[in-house]
Amino acid sequence: MSTDLAYATALELAHRIRRRDLSPVEVMRATLDRAERSQPVLNAFVTLCPEAAMAGARAAERAVMRGDALGLLHGLPLSVKDLVPTAGVRTTYGSLIYRNHVPAQDPVVIQRLKQAGAILFGKTTTPEFGQQPLTRSRVFGETRNAWSATRTAAGSSGGAAAAVAAGIGVLAVASDGGGSTRIPAAANGVVGFKQSLGTVPQDWAHDAFGNISYVTPMTRTVADTALMLSVMAGPSEADPQTIGRPSQDYLAAVQDQHDLKGLRLGFRALLGNTVLGADMRRLFEQAVATLAEAGAELSECTHDVEHVERLWFIVNASYRRAQYGHLIAEHRAIMCPTFLRQMDAAADYSAAELYDGILMRSRLYRQVQGWLEGLDAIVMPTLSRAALPLDQDFFAPIEIDNQVTDTIRRAWYPYTMPFNLTGHPAISVPCGFDSDGLPLGLQILGRPGADATVLRLAAAFEQRRPWAQHRPHLPELDA
Hints:
With 479 residues, this protein is an alpha/beta fold.
């Protein structure tokens, strides 16, 4: 696969396939080859399915040649995070318990992507049950950052982010339960969008009413995210959060961006944390200036903010204990110690404590709505610093500019967890490089249901600070 083809956008590839100057077979063969060669370098895939993917590509080519009506994603390679079930393709959830598990049915979101013409070629790595911001598992080992083999791909959608950043498949399904899409997107220099609660159905979620995890698109450009979301979004009878949601034209929102006149944006550099890396602060200030130059009216947000780590942990860990408690009792010896330590810490929460967490979640939602009063969106960093070292201990404090700070959740990504709890849409877009040449991200937070506005802002920023021309140095793949 030529480097230019590997890094082509989904919109470009779809157009070329429709024009018949590019075959889905050619695209898929090259994608699989790149994925296989990437494994010793990035280790971003748990499972590849070359036979089924090539059969799908050949069928897609025949449909083009017959002149059939084609879906928005016809012939485009698709990877899916290994937390999301896929019919007939191994889904391990990052756990040795499920190392040979093959689901019988696709969830609604995967059905929609396939019906639109996307072709599944592989499952990307995730830590056990997605419960780490570092993508490592006893199933596959460690996933490395696309920009540096000494840094983590972050997580829990680290495999998806590293693969997309490295030009291995143009579309990726990720998920986000506390930042699991946005964190690795920022660390690997790609676009990660956690849409509003109820935008994309999750018919396989155990908790249909209190869910805080979202299945998301991950791509290299904002327009490709809008394209993918156009297919993924929409109500499903199996997900009560989606019922009655009005449709939005996500693609129209990102096209022909010229200015942001009339939009009122807030900005804040900290969100309960006290330390922000100098490189991130510099890039954030530049990003705010770029948005002002685009015509947006900017004002600093000065509301007091508390860490929501305990609230998030009470709600999330209690949910996970209910999901996986029986597995812990039976399979503890083969489970990830980091996962077990988190679950053990939640073992004694009472029903009263859990419900207090649920009430706190409601208060947090109203607090964030208060921040947005009179504003269309708020911008902030996605992470306090670039990707952490590959061997970072989850429970150890992290360093920022050679200063020992706090835990990963409190010091690295305090910006992401709150909005899983509140349901607000939030997107991470690349905003530049740190002094070591590693990418960092800008997060844009919008009002619930205003996903198109968030995408519009992200596209306008991307237009003025283009990123897609930047590619990680991967001679093993690009030679």
